Amino acid sequence: MVSFSCPSCEGRVSPKAFDCPHCGHPIKKPKRGFFGKIFKWLLIIFNLLMIFWIFSYFSSLGELTEGASSDAERAGAAIGGTIGTGLIFAIWVVGDIILGLAALMTRPRK
């Protein structure tokens, strides 16, 4: 079997090793598998979409509140805006938990 020397302690290391068995110096970094990459990118894209959604929601909510002609309409817009904001954040948290756990379960291992 072909081996090479560790850059730190000059000990012999297998090409399959992630760390030097003598000194623990990292030799190579483990890589994510196919599904690990998919879940990682899904988590990133989901968070970017949620940020876009919340900013577009707040801008439309501001237009709705400014366009209200009576106090009842403004109060309804405020209550509806609070409920809508809570729902968006609830979807965001649940989605992050699900995708985050999937990305965590598919992380690279040594």
Note the run of SSEs as H and E: EEHH
- Give the rounded overall mean pLDDT: 90
Number of domains: 2
Compute the separation of the termini in Å.
20 Å
Radius of gyration: 25 Å
Report what the structure shows.
This protein is 62% helix and 4% strand. The radius of gyration is 25 Å and the shape is rod-shaped. By secondary structure, it is mainly α. The chain has helices at residues 34-66, 71-105; strands at residues 4-5, 12-13. The chain has two domains: 1-30, no CATH class; 32-105. The chain has a two-stranded antiparallel sheet with strand order 1-2.
Secondary-structure topology with pairs:
Blueprint: E1 4-5, E2 12-13, H1 34-66, H2 71-105
Antiparallel strand pairs: 1-2
Helix pairs in contact: 1-2
